């Protein structure tokens, strides 16, 4: 790829929109995951008695399902990213490839 072709892609409105959307999506989902994870860590640090309290009459503490929920949230956020990428980012990428191919 020549430097002129690279510059044409970088200046293309579809590429700029693609880069903005991808960054916004990635940073947004990262912020949600970090908030969940650090919220759990802060709960462990400042209210360990809440997470150590058994659920009902059983021996399983509340911390176990909360930890599993955080792992499942990570999987769900991955699904959100894939869905949004397939729905919004891939069409922009295809448009960019069509219009910038020599």
Automatic annotation (TrEMBL):
InterPro entries according to UniProt: DUF485, Inner_membrane_assoc
Q: Where are the transmembrane segments?
A: 25-50, 62-82
Kindly state which keywords UniProt assigns to this record, in alphabetical order: Membrane, Transmembrane, Transmembrane helix
Q: Is the keyword Transmembrane helix in the record?
A: yes
Name the source's superkingdom.
Bacteria
Q: What is this protein called?
A: DUF485 domain-containing protein
